[in-house]
Amino acid sequence: MRAKLRSVLLGKAIKSAESESQKYSAFWGLPILSSDAVSSVAYAGEEVLLVLIPVLGAASYKPLLGVAAAIVALLTILVFSYRQTIDCYPQGGGSYSVASDNLGRLPGLVAAASLSIDYVLTVAVSVSAGTAAVTSAVPGLLPFKVYIALLLVAFLTLGNLRGLRESSILFGVPTYLFIVSVIVMILAGLVKVLIFHDVPAQTAAMLPRETGGLSVLLLLKAFASGCTALTGVEAVSNGVPNFKNPAQKNAKKVLLLLALLVLTVFVGICTLIALYQVVPGSSETVVSKLATNVFGTGSVMYYVIQATTTLILVMAANTSFSGLPQLLSILARDSYVARSFADRGLRLNYSNGILLLSVLSAGLVVIFQGDTHHLLPLYAVGVFLSFTLSQTGMVLHWRKVRGERWKHKAVINGIGAVTTAVTCVIIAATKFINGAWIVLICIPVLVLLMLAIRKHYDHVRANLAVTQDAGALVLSHSVKAKILLPIQSVNKSFIKALNYALSLDGDLEIYHVSTDASVTEKLLNQYATLGLKEKIVVEEAPYRNVNELLIHHVDAMEKKLGAHEMLTVVLPQFIIPKWWHNILHNQTSIRLRASLLHRRNVVVVSIPYIINE
Amino acid sequence: MRAKLRSVLLGKAIKSAESESQKYSAFWGLPILSSDAVSSVAYAGEEVLLVLIPVLGAASYKPLLGVAAAIVALLTILVFSYRQTIDCYPQGGGSYSVASDNLGRLPGLVAAASLSIDYVLTVAVSVSAGTAAVTSAVPGLLPFKVYIALLLVAFLTLGNLRGLRESSILFGVPTYLFIVSVIVMILAGLVKVLIFHDVPAQTAAMLPRETGGLSVLLLLKAFASGCTALTGVEAVSNGVPNFKNPAQKNAKKVLLLLALLVLTVFVGICTLIALYQVVPGSSETVVSKLATNVFGTGSVMYYVIQATTTLILVMAANTSFSGLPQLLSILARDSYVARSFADRGLRLNYSNGILLLSVLSAGLVVIFQGDTHHLLPLYAVGVFLSFTLSQTGMVLHWRKVRGERWKHKAVINGIGAVTTAVTCVIIAATKFINGAWIVLICIPVLVLLMLAIRKHYDHVRANLAVTQDAGALVLSHSVKAKILLPIQSVNKSFIKALNYALSLDGDLEIYHVSTDASVTEKLLNQYATLGLKEKIVVEEAPYRNVNELLIHHVDAMEKKLGAHEMLTVVLPQFIIPKWWHNILHNQTSIRLRASLLHRRNVVVVSIPYIINE
Questions:
Q1: Do B15 and A543 touch (CB under 8 A)?
Q2: How many CB pairs under 8 A join A and B?
Q3: Which spans are transmembrane here (chains A, B) (predicted)?
Q4: What interface predicted TM-score (ipTM) does this complex get?
Q5: CB 3.0 to 4.6 Å from A99: which of A107, A135, A490, B9, for a disulfide?
Q6: Cβ-defined contact of A492 to B463 (cutoff 8 Å)
Q7: pLDDT (tens digit, 9 = 90+) per residue, B372-383?
Q8: What's the pTM value of the predicted model, to 2 decimals?
Q9: Residue in chain B lying closest to A532 (CA)
Q10: How far does CA A267 lie from the centroid of its chain?
Q11: For residue A35, which of A228, A235, A226, A247 has the smallest C-alpha distance?
């Protein structure tokens, strides 16, 4: 039953040998790896506006373009910086690998922690933003936004447990659709305003009043908010091994195209916002308002824009679903997280990581009630922290490796490191009270946790390791077994256990704890009919604590054992086919087995007796 | 740690031999057994008024006295009827025993089911009513009434787990205090009105208008509501064995006194209500209003009345805490409920029954938000159903046993049976939509459940019973063991298991499931250093389903076993002292053991390897 359900939901199992399946070309790699970066522009412009509008009112649109220009400059630096990472790390240059390789264990773990937080936040943010695109188009769905977001998380979880990676075409199409339709919108909007001078009047009238002046702090805040547009750039350098050969060349090509796309779409959308003087509102996204302005309410193109926006945001969330489980599997192999994160599931994916991501992001959606804006401050700090660590790692890498024109290369990565570090500080400082402090607390906590887990694994490994000659540990002489068989009544289950205990051919003791003299007498009479030479040892339990006395007795017997001797406790256990029937039976034998297993020289033998239906 | 906490909370363990400890005299038995009955008058009058006032308005007070008279008449019949039950059942004549003895299994179970429901409802109702007395005196506590009620349930649970029965004096005093202070209030109230003609004017003015006329249906409804005053009468006949000798004589004396007390208090309170024309309101109880009228707001006697009312209502709840666990233990011995309800705890009480009652009544308090009135319709149906069954059982008892003046006795019980049956029908009919239907559904469901549980126990007993000559079942010849030892890596835990497996002296097979060829090669090299003659059987797992393949292999080996042969699977298990560290380790061995235990001829041996701290 369970296996069948699993195979319907997840598909057939995949063999380990099929691991190296489809790799992608530059054409299909671009949409898959860029969905996160391209999609962030769907909300980055809005975030910048949300900072500027309350202070500057209608005067916000010129600074918006300035902030957009600064973000594009930062993007350019990142692209050149990351092209070099791709050159050096053909096996995939995630921040964790680069930082721990070049900066050491602690910076590596900091990068891993901030990346993990980002992956979880990406899912929550993208799914919430995708939901916002849906509710902008269909306002009637607004009360159900949390459920819609959770449904999307569930869909992504199931899809990834099945292994969505196979269907790269299925993934690429929505991204291209989004890019094409947004570019159509940008061009149509520009034509409308610049050539036909067709700007709707009512939007300008609705602008809030100016309440303050332009200040450096305000610009920094706006810049910090807009930097969410740059998340997802790292995905390409992470994914180098997934490209067709020549992998590195393809990856670098994709990175460049990605930058051009982000540039076009982000600058285009910010320009349109400025031209149409769109005001962000809580129930409709800025992109939705733009589309209404450009194409008119209820037009087909409006719905195309909303639909493709939703799709690409869900695709962006999907980036995390391949990223976090991958990162966790690397961390698991290095013993920094639970080892089960390195286990591949039925469909060859890291199912435990997928499930963890699903639970955590669903939790965030519920806690923040599907409100993207509240999640964003948490988001960018970690992204830029990992950028900084990775780029700093690259600088040290060049210093160590040297090689052709290494100083030149080190300078490029150095510029990347410095600018991302400055951005990180700006975001942390300006967004501190808005929630960035949460991330700054979470990162050290996660790092300490990972160190503790590593320590535990090291400890267990040291305990289990065979250091001396393994052959010498195998006993050459035979040891006669000491066997203890508890008895509470003479029934078929006991007799089965007794037969097994007799077959072990050791010193057998049959032991009874008496809570009621009349019951014990009946038992002894029944036992007498078995005709055994072993006598029953009876102990009185005036306080009715049968298990406690049995454990004391086992402890006493264990103390008397000689070298290499083990005490074998034979426990009859009857098995009831329907699990819920177990409520009707004493769970004492289960608890008893659990406590007996914590004794060094006590072996527990479970003899099943199956109750027929 | 845990044992210490337990002993602080619950006291020291009590020996089984001390079971027959303090029994009570008539003087202390009266307050203990009557608390339920006497306390119900604290809300019964109010319930009658709540039915009458909305229809009759100020004209309600004469019918109130009529209804009270009918209830007193019913009480008189019950007392004579139950005196005869005491005579016949010196071992305690609960409805379950009397009905199943004389009417058969099904009526007995119906009585048991309705009694069980009543016990749970008694706790919820009494605790809610006690809370209402507190919030009437201190209205500021009204928003916390659910928490206060839950606190009282917790207090009763803890008290009963400790075994409150010992402290009969502690229990008797509040009841006597209540009786004395209520009688003082009744006398003072009567004197004030009848001699000094001192009735507060404003209360009469606040009376609602008459909206309808007096009808038979209205009177029946009022009667049904007031019958809650009669619950708890059965407690005396249940508790006969707890009396000092002559037990039956003492019990009958107590039953008579109880009836006199209920009569005095109930009639007195109803008279006062009529004289003062008290109107029931949601935030203050009728008794509280009476006390205000008689003694004045904020007087000492007012608070004495409220405090003793609270105390006696809590005591009434306590009746259930000895009643339900006792009933469940009898049902458990007859295999109609889980056997663990017959286990005596540390302090000799039936702790599982106490805990069940606590959870269920707390649940009801939360669901009904501590509102007594909503719970009452659920309450009385079951009580009168069990009265009827018990009295009908007594009639059949006399017919069967005959003896001196049996016809006379049968007539008395017959009158009891008929009147309680009529009352039961009245309550069920008039209160049907108010919630009585819930009880009428719960009773058959509980009966079916109890029958199913009995069937299961009978089935298990038949499966385990040794029917033929037990000695013949013990094998006379020795069987060579087949042993399977799975290996995933060569470590100290495996070597410990290996040594044990070798000591068993059977056919040992060492079995490895390979998910990764390089890991397997390393393993085989390490294994070679052990210098064993047993070769490792290696199976490939292209789908990484190690446990599944192992279980298939065990199944295949089990099929090849000869008669009386068992397959012993030796499972190394490493034990980590801190339980939460287990999250970091695969739980596969635990799941594996659980599935292997469901195979008839497979014995599972667990070899512990304890990881040092």
A1: yes
A2: 201
A3: 64-82, 144-161, 173-195, 215-233, 254-279, 299-332, 353-370, 376-398, 410-429, 435-453
A4: 0.77
A5: A107
A6: yes
A7: 677 777 778 888
A8: 0.75
A9: B471
A10: 32
A11: A235
